[in-house]
Amino acid sequence: MTGTGPSDDQIHDQIRAAIVERRLAPGTRLREQQLSDIYAASRRQVRRVLERLAYAGLVEIAPNRGASVAQPSPKYARDLFEARKAIETAVARAALDACDDEGIAMLRGHLALEARAAEAGDRQEALVLSGGFHRRLASLADNAILAKFLNEVVSRESLIIQLYERPSDSGCSSTDHSRIVDALERKDWGDLRTRILDHIDAIRAQVDLDTPPARTGALETVLGLGPRHD
User: Fold this and answer.
1) pLDDT tens digits, residue range 111-120?
2) Longest CA span, the chain
3) What is the secondary structure of 131-151 as a DSSP string?
4) What confidence score (pLDDT) does residue 226 get?
5) What's the CA gap between 193 and 189, in Å, rounded?
6) Which tens digit of pLDDT belongs to each residue from 38-58?
7) C-alpha gyration radius of the chain
8) What is the pTM of this model?
9) What CATH number labels 8-70+214-223?
């Protein structure tokens, strides 16, 4: 932060994190004046941030209604899961070719963090780390375009899970992640591809696309204390 207030990037990153980490529910209204007050920023600055988030598919801006956290339709959700299969298998293939011992060690370290969060019962941290695993896998592929696509898909998927997740399910499986790393370390493309596809199917099975959308969250509760400094 500076003496003149937060930058566009700082506001963007914090609102995006609140959406992706499922602290702001789909459908939550994102009122310009309210965000302006929270961040001590101009409405023009807030508007620029909301337009960026809309371009990323995380926010919807409707005429005469303003902005709200996006609410993906069931059709959109089904399409996204299929798109993720294509993107993440391409990421895995590239990661397999480029990955070395250092990359495997990095993934193993991330798995340890996931296990620690699970043991502590910290669901919020587990959710953050779960998405982080796939971003770390993409970083090994050494393909910025594939990494960008996967990041966007995983981020939008968080909205789908929040809207349609079955109450008894707990999210992305760290056991699946461990098996993915095992296959990657063995350089076993056939098993790696199977593990990736099975993992995405398992996530898809956690959502019921016939259920009504979840209730929206309160903007004041999530962002009311102003920008975080972490």
Assistant:
1) 999 999 989 9
2) 55
3) HHHHHHHHHHTT-HHHHHHHH
4) 44
5) 6
6) 999 999 999 999 999 999 999
7) 18
8) 0.82
9) 1.10.10.10
